[in-house]
Design brief:
Structural class: mainly alpha
Strand content: under 5%
Shape: globular
Distance between the termini: 35 Å
Largest sheet: none
Number of strands: 0
Oligomer: single chain
Number of helices: 9
Helix content: over 70%
């Protein structure tokens, strides 16, 4: 069973007028196509190249611009006292990293996943650490603004967690990397549940930033070590 703070919903009314909803959906659709295209292109460039940093920052800019242009977004709050969620999302990000670290150990036994993860981590190994972290965190914020902000709202009241996660995974599929697609499905679901439970993007954004930071810090060394099996 999922914990109450992921299942329960903060009582908020985010319903929009029909013309506002239609406009938001048009903006979201256009942004999704543009952002997905840039994302796929960014991970086809040479690791550490100027093109890589330019395109990844371009992806972040696209998500943020589309998210903000779609209409008002909500930060959300906790059920108790209406405060902004901070501690729980941070701890959840650390917990999600622990789960992924364990899965990474197992994936080294699976050639397809081992190769897919190694392909992604080369962007960290061959690039400037500060720039890689900057682009990763910028994209983490941008993805929450768009996918758990604009897209989640545009999805309406029927299955917004499923809808936002599905589009998130489809956008990630343009990278043609199975490890990233799997991660987007798992984390997209978690982020979507946080969005539903808190009524806004602050909780999933904090979790995303903590998770991304820890993944970049501790996962690359694991895949630099030669496996013994």
């Amino acid at each position: 069973m999922l914990p109450a703070w992921l299942v329960q919903r903060v009582p908020r009314d985010h319903r929009e007028r029909d013309h506002v909803s239609r406009r938001r959906r048009r903006v979201v659709a256009g942004t999704a196509v543009a952002g997905a295209g840039l994302l796929g292109l960014s991970l086809s460039t040479e690791p550490g190249s100027t093109e890589f940093y330019g395109l990844t920052l371009g992806v972040a800019a696209t998500w943020i611009a589309g998210g903000l242009a779609s209409g008002p977004l909500q930060l959300g709050h906790t059920r108790r006292g209406g405060t902004r969620p901070v501690l729980t999302p941070i701890l959840l990000g650390a917990g999600a990293f622990g789960l992924f670290y364990g899965c990474a150990l197992v994936s080294r036994r699976i050639p397809v996943l081992n190769g897919a993860i190694a392909t992604i981590l080369q962007y960290s190994d061959k690039g400037a650490q500060s720039l890689v972290l900057c682009t990763a965190l910028a994209n983490g914020v941008a993805e929450e603004v768009f996918f758990r902000g604009a897209l989640y709202t545009a999805a309406g009241e029927r299955h917004p967690v499923v809808s936002s996660t599905a589009v998130y995974a489809l956008a990630t599929a343009t990278t043609r990397n199975p490890a990233l697609v799997l991660a987007s499905g798992v984390m997209g679901t978690l982020f979507g549940l946080q969005r539903r439970a808190s009524g806004g993007i602050q909780a999933p954004m904090l979790t995303h930033l903590v998770w991304s930071t820890l993944m970049l810090r501790y996962l690359p060394p694991l895949f630099r070590k030669p496996t013994t099996w």
